[in-house]
């Protein structure tokens, strides 16, 4: 697998007054896709709750390259671009590609795992999280931190 991919479906409420996808909708699509991927990798909400940990973001950035309109066919591709060997810190990239395979936007997030009882970074990284995130497809320029 080269990436986790998802075809997006836009709603009227995803648009801004200029009739293209509003900036915050991109972040919503990225967040939803990350949660769906974690669920697919076995990190369900039930598992996260029972083991008292979850993902936390330190940075979320979107670079907009080409506007997306309501009827556009867009596929979001998600990969991991950076990770520490123990999977304690990581960066994930979402690329929004149109029908012409042109890049419309890129979201990059930097994150870690949080111990939800202690409200601190999980140390050590839960084994199930390490196993899951190691199964993420990697970018061509993947960097081990």
TrEMBL record:
Annotated InterPro entries: 4-hydroxybenzoyl-CoA_TE, HotDog_dom_sf
Name recorded for this polypeptide: Acyl-CoA thioester hydrolase
Keyword list, A-Z: Hydrolase
A GO term, aspect molecular function: fatty acyl-CoA hydrolase activity
PANTHER family: 4-HYDROXYBENZOYL-COA THIOESTERASE FAMILY MEMBER, LONG-CHAIN ACYL-COA THIOESTERASE FADM
Signal peptide positions (record): none
